Amino acid sequence: MAVSDSEIVIGRGVLEDEILPPRPSRHRVAILSQAGSSAIAGRINQALQNGPVDAAVIELPDGEPAKTLAAAEHVYRELNRLGLTRQDTVLAVGGGAVTDVGGFVAATYLRGIEAVYCSTTLLGAVDAAIGGKTGVNVGGKNLVGVFAHPTRIVIDLDVLDALPADLRSQGMAEVLKAGLIGDSELVDLLERDGLGADIEEVVTRAIAVKLGVVAEDFRESGRRAFLNYGHTLGHAIEVASGVSHGEAVAIGMVAAGVVSAELTGFDEEARVGSIITDLGLPVRLTGHLDRDQMLALIRLDKKRDQSGIRMVLLEAIGHPIVQTVDEPVILEALTAIQPSGSVGQRATGNG
Q1: Residues forming the active site
Q2: Which of 50, 91, 239, 272 has the fewest CB within 10 Å, making it most exposed?
Q3: Same fold, 2-161 and 218-344
């Protein structure tokens, strides 16, 4: 698979043999990773050390703290110390936080050096690593970044198969989003098989949706905005509550379904909510959030324009639109996802 200048390698046992595209002028590789991906980064580092390049691992903080300007500066200084040149490579090994900051650093260091991604989470494999968006958080999610494709994205299905249930579940939020905006058969698959859905089919179908959108609109001037379904409120929930990205997107999709039902007549809210529950994801918050804070965060969203807050809505599964939404409607959606007795508890799933 390929999009623009990126080659996507999906297979089993591909970490050591297919991690880097051929490049005779490459002499050094800086491997970025977090604690959760350190073992895989170590394996890759050892394999590269046995070859013709010098490699070194740079550890990033866990979670979203990796996506700060301070963390990026630390990496820049390490690249200086290692002596990377424009012929060398930044290899980001891990989930979405690592590939986001790794891509940002590579695109800006020496005004641009090669980036390669090795996605070790389902969420990263189907979403964060695909499409050329990089960025760090400054007050809001991904407000500082650039569009830049890595030369190769490596997805080892053995690694994804070994993920714990919670990480698989979080990744399924982005898989479901892909299905809702562009692949009704993928939605059917998740409804039927839940977390037991075949990982190769899940990954390839979700990536195909994203590639199709990105190929038409790389810099998000139009159709690419569809990929943000569930994210306008989801990003605000993530920042305000500290829940994981996958959980926040799941709740954000519930909220977007409420808005869609009111403004477009979307009539499959209940079905989507049931799928989210069966995937082990929450459909409501477990604690109340301050509405003024939420609205302030939503107003920071990158998809805003002079007309107001723009949201991706569904007319039907596979038929997204972008529409400006008034704040009273957004407040209704926030009410719908607030905890209400036992409904506010996390869904347990049956997958």
Answers
A1: 111, 133, 174, 210, 220, 224, 228, 231, 235, 245
A2: 50
A3: no
Output the CA–CA distances (angstroms, integers) from residue 260 to 163, 184, 255, in the order listed. Answer: 33, 17, 9
For 311-345, write each residue's pLDDT tens digit: 999 999 999 999 999 999 999 999 999 986 433 33
Topology classification of domain 218-344: Dehydroquinate synthase-like, alpha domain (1.20.1090)
- Domain segments of the chain as ranges: 2-161, 218-344
CATH entry 3.40.50.1970 includes domain 2-161: yes
